[in-house]
Design brief:
alpha+beta; Outer Surface Protein A, domain 3; 3 domains; three-stranded antiparallel β-sheet; 5 helices; 12 strands; globular; ribonucleoprotein
């Protein structure tokens, strides 16, 4: 057996060094690529394509920022995350809608025909989510008070049918119940008065349309199902098995449907 010469041993060491150097270079390149990919993804998620889109104000609509959050049920306290929020009152020919404006949201209404939203800290995931949600709620409110929202329902079943009739029973809203009770959870007197004024305007608009109505639905039970129509929602029955709901508040419309 012939022993390897000095030149052969030197060549082997050099080749091994090159292989190690190549492997370490590949590892460094892969690590750099991973870091760059992570950094790029972090930058991309901090931009909300929904929240950053401006909103155009339709004709005959207006917005007003109130220094307190909306309180849909004054008989119950607000959540801690909502107590420091504000409200955006959106008005139009179809009615009024109140949208919560959280503390982290900055609304720019310097342009009379367009509004834009931003957040205080775009590194916070929760703020980015609230950013897009608030923009969507404002878009729905602007469309609702200017054009209105429509939901169509179809009754599928043998003998299923619906009709609309006058509601003879008295009604009490959540605001009326809170004011009549011994305790309410309004954050301030200004918030209380604003809710009373808004409820008064809504009641006056309803009285112009006529008496309170309710849905009379047959769904296969031994008795009919009677559903009082909430304030701010109009009901049409074009066919016995088809119900069309219209209103300015998309959330209220969806809850009733």
């Amino acid at each position: 057996m012939v022993a390897p010469t000095a030149s052969a041993s030197s060549f082997t060491r050099q080749l091994g060094g090159l292989l190690l150097s190549s492997a370490s270079s590949s590892s460094r390149i892969a690590a750099t690529a991973r870091i760059a990919s992570t950094f790029t993804s972090l930058l991309s998620v901090r931009h909300s394509h929904v929240g950053s889109a401006p909103l155009d104000l339709p004709t005959s609509t207006s917005i007003e920022i109130l220094p307190f959050p909306p309180h849909p049920n004054p008989s119950r306290p607000l959540l801690p995350s909502q107590r420091h929020a504000r409200s955006v009152l959106v008005k139009g020919p179809k009615g009024e809608v109140v949208v919560p404006l959280h503390e982290c949201i900055v609304l720019d209404s310097s342009n009379e025909k367009r509004i834009s939203l931003s957040i205080k800290d775009d590194s916070q995931k929760k703020q980015r989510g609230t950013w897009g949600l608030t923009r969507s709620l404002l878009a729905n409110a602007l469309q609702g008070v200017s054009e209105g929202h429509t939901v169509s329902l179809k009754l599928v079943g043998v003998g299923y049918r619906a009709s609309i009739e006058t509601d003879p029973l008295p009604r009490r809203s959540k605001l009326d119940i809170a004011l009549a009770g011994s305790k309410s959870f309004f954050l301030s007197e200004a918030a209380k008065q604003a809710e009373i004024d808004r409820a008064t305007r809504a009641q006056q608009a309803v009285e112009k349309q006529g008496p309170n109505m309710r849905l009379h639905i047959r769904l296969g039970y031994s008795h009919p199902v009677l559903l009082p129509v909430p304030y701010g929602i109009q009901v049409q029955i074009p066919q016995p098995n088809r119900i069309v709901l219209k209103g300015a508040d998309k959330e209220q419309l969806g809850l009733f449907a």
